[in-house]
Amino acid sequence: MIFDTHAHYDDEAFDEDRDSLLQSLTENGILRTVNVSSSVSSNETTLQIAEQWPFVYAAFGVHPSNTAELTEENFGRIEELVDHPKCVAVGEIGLDYHYDEPSRDLQKKWFAAQIQLAKEKGKPVIIHSRDAAQDTCDLMKAEQAKDCGGVVHCFSYSKEMARLFVRMGFYIGVGGVVTFKNARVLKEVVEDIPLEYIVLETDCPYLAPVPFRGKRNSSLHLPLVVEKIAQIKGITTQEVEEITWQNALRLYRMKE
Ligand code: NI
What we know:
binds nickel (II) ion
């Protein structure tokens, strides 16, 4: 019983076999997933997928690298979408200084606005943060993001940072990267943080686990991530599946 807390099935990488792939997930134990929006247009494609598939839920929001697309008008549409019955979070939102575009000020403005939206609507946030640990933390504190909670997805920082996010009431999203040879820091995080704060994610079509690294990812590869976490924690794969399933339900405030 696996919950993929972060997927992008509206991505064009799935155009050729989206329906048959989604159909196969539940047959393979992937019983729930959240399709996460990242741009103004993907809010609409995410809505379509969530309306078509009962086990697919939605997160609406705009990724930091795409915040130049945002206007007061299309932000109004996101506010509307967040009230949709299949919407379980605002995301993905945050700061990305890896490409450093658009400007840091613009990224911060929309990160703050989307945290406030989540707080108003009583939904958690899905945070994307890359090469921006300190600013992400500072802004979350300033905006009191602990009031909405959420997940720091595709976690790429130290265990000290992970502890800090957990103390703010956030979950740590772990995916295919944990199987990479050079993922020493993430393995330390998984070892250090109680399993009760870890959720499984793919970020598919990106970040396929070894031995599929570099290929198209999908939720079908999550058992490889489960195995790696079980190995690091010294527990069974069944325990990892059960506990991360419960964690995901708590994160997204969903019933069984
Ligand atoms: Ni993503």
